[in-house]
Amino acid sequence: MRDKLFDEYVEILKEKKIKLTDVRLTILKCIATRKHFTINELIAEIEKETKSSVNVMSVYNNIDMLLDLHLLFSNTINGKQIIYEAITPQLIHVKCHECEMFEHIDSSSLSQDLLSQFKKIGESINFELDHFKLEMHGLCNNCRKKLSTIANK
């Protein structure tokens, strides 16, 4: 699946006549192999891959370009940290507000059900939906157990 994503991104950039530099291809490869990443994680991965330091502005410029092309989503965690991920037609995340765990839910049946419902909502306001991003907040199982243990003492 991730190789397919890399190939799709390369084709999109070719169609848009965007130069496929070594750094840009390495960035695409790194993005295609990770679910979520920060800029610092991406830079570290690129430097590990290329075995050399990377121009940080080049990475930021490429991320901006991919955001503009709607190939990446940016997610703000705890109002401070930005986490990026490749766009898929449906993105569903859960975030624990206690330990700040952030997870992607992979459920095609749930995603299809939600997409169908969201498309109906869009149609009701004359809006054509092509993808969605959903973020749910609450307590993960571990934090619920910890809080329950504390409350029972």
Describe the protein's architecture and organization.
- This protein is α+β, with helices and mostly antiparallel strands.
- It folds into 2 domains: 1-87, Arc Repressor Mutant, subunit A, CATH 1.10.10.10; 88-153, Ferric-uptake regulator, C-terminal dimerisarion domain (Dna Ligase, domain 1, 2-Layer Sandwich), CATH 3.30.1490.190.
- 51% of the residues lie in helices and 19% in strands.
- It has 6 helices and 5 strands.
- It has helices spanning 2-15, 22-32, 39-50, 56-68, 108-124, 141-151; strands at residues 72-77, 81-86, 90-96, 102-104, 132-138.
- Strands 4-3-5 form a 3-stranded mixed sheet. Strands 1-2 form a two-stranded antiparallel ribbon.
- Helix 1 runs antiparallel to helix 2 and helix 2 (22-32) packs across helix 3.
- The longest helix has 17 residues, at 108-124.
- The N and C termini lie far apart (48 Å).
- The model has no long low-confidence stretch (mean pLDDT 86).
